[in-house]
Design goal:
With 287 residues, the chain is of the alpha/beta class. The chain is built from 13 helices and 8 strands. The strands form 3 sheets. Strands 4-1-7-8 form a 4-stranded parallel beta sheet, sandwiched between helices. The longest helix is centred in the N-terminal third of the chain and has 21 residues.
C-alpha cells in the first residue's frame, strides 16, 4: 500500500468535503472535483476505503476545532457561568401542540380577515431575515392594528417542549454549583410568557433570570445575536470579564458561536445533549 498516496488522497478528499460544505470559490471546486478526481489515482478498493475513513476522521477534527475554544484556566463552579440559548438547545418545536392550539384558538379567522396584503408582504420580508423571533411578527401585526393576529402569534410562539437530555444536563450542572443564565433572541414579552407556561423549568431556582439577556426589537434599540453588542450588553449588565470568568455559551447557530468566541466567551455549537456533555468534558468540566 502506497502510504504517501493514501495520505495525500485523504487530504484531498477532506478538502473536497469542505469545498462542498462551505461553498468556496469555484476554482477550488474545479480543482478538487476535476483534476484531482480520486478514481484517476489508481488506488485499489481497500485503499479507497482507507482514504475515506482517514478523511472522515480529519474532517471531524477540523470541523469541531473552530467551534470549541479551550479555556485558559480550570473550569470550576466558582469561576464559570453557563449562558444558554433557548430554541433548539433547551426547547424544540412541538408540532402536534401547535396544531391543537391553532384549532382551539377562537379568533384565528378574524385574525386572517383583518390582515392586509401590505401586512403579509412585510411579514414575508421578515421571514427572509436571519435570527428572527415571533415577537417581531407580533409587533408588526400591532402596528397594522391587527390585535387578533398579534395574540395568535404570541399564543402559538411558545408551542415548544423541553429537550430532556439538555434539561437533565442543566440540572446536573446546577447540583454541582454552576450558575446558569439565558442568552436568547426571544423577546422580553414572549420570554415572560414562556416563564409562566414553563415555570417548572424557567425559574429562579435553576436559572439566574435577572442576569439573563434577551433580545430587543424596538425600532431605535434593536439588540440581538449575532450582533457583538448583544454579548457586550450581557457582560456589562453582569459586570463580567471573560479574562477572569469562564463564560460557556451554548447555541445551535454557528454565527452566534463565532461572535461569542471573538468576545472572549467559550462557544459550544449545540447539536445534541450527548455531544454537549462530551464537549464539556473535553473542556475539563466534571459532568
Amino acid at each position: 500500500m502506497n502510504t504517501l498516496y493514501i495520505s495525500l488522497a485523504s487530504l484531498v478528499l477532506t478538502a473536497r468535503v469542505f469545498v462542498k460544505q462551505f461553498q468556496v470559490k469555484p476554482v477550488l471546486s474545479k480543482l478538487f472535483y476535476g483534476k484531482w478526481e480520486l478514481s484517476k489515482w489508481g488506488l485499489s478498493n481497500p485503499e479507497l476505503v482507507t482514504v475515506r475513513r482517514v478523511s472522515i476522521f480529519i474532517a471531524i477534527i477540523l470541523s469541531t476545532a473552530h467551534t470549541l475554544a479551550v479555556p485558559l484556566k480550570p473550569i470550576t463552579k466558582d469561576n464559570t457561568v453557563f449562558l444558554w440559548d433557548i430554541h433548539d438547545v433547551i426547547l424544540k418545536k412541538d408540532t402536534s401542540l401547535l396544531i391543537k392550539k391553532l384549532l382551539k384558538y377562537p379568533r384565528k379567522w378574524g385574525a386572517l380577515r383583518k390582515s392586509s396584503f401590505r401586512l403579509w408582504r412585510q411579514m414575508r420580508a421578515l421571514s427572509k431575515q436571519k435570527q428572527k423571533t415571533g415577537e417581531i411578527y407580533a409587533d408588526l401585526a400591532l402596528k397594522h392594528k391587527n390585535k387578533d393576529l398579534a395574540c395568535l402569534i404570541m399564543y402559538l410562539a411558545n408551542t415548544q417542549k423541553p429537550i430532556r437530555g439538555t434539561v437533565n444536563l442543566i440540572k446536573d450542572l446546577k447540583k454541582r454549583g454552576y450558575a446558569h443564565h439565558i442568552g436568547s433572541n426571544i423577546g422580553p414579552v414572549f420570554f415572560a410568557n414562556l416563564q409562566k407556561r414553563m415555570s417548572a423549568l424557567f425559574n429562579s431556582t435553576l436559572f439566574d433570570l435577572d442576569k439573563s439577556q434577551v433580545a430587543s426589537y424596538a425600532d431605535k434599540k434593536q439588540l440581538y445575536k449575532p450582533d457583538p453588542a448583544f454579548f457586550a450588553s450581557y457582560l456589562a449588565k453582569n459586570n463580567l470579564d471573560p479574562h477572569t470568568t469562564t463564560i460557556i455559551f451554548i447555541d445551535d447557530k454557528l454565527e452566534n458561536i463565532e461572535v461569542a468566541n471573538k468576545m472572549g466567551l467559550i462557544g459550544i455549537h449545540f447539536t445534541s445533549p450527548k455531544q454537549l456533555r462530551k464537549d464539556l468534558r473535553a473542556l475539563g468540566c466534571a459532568i
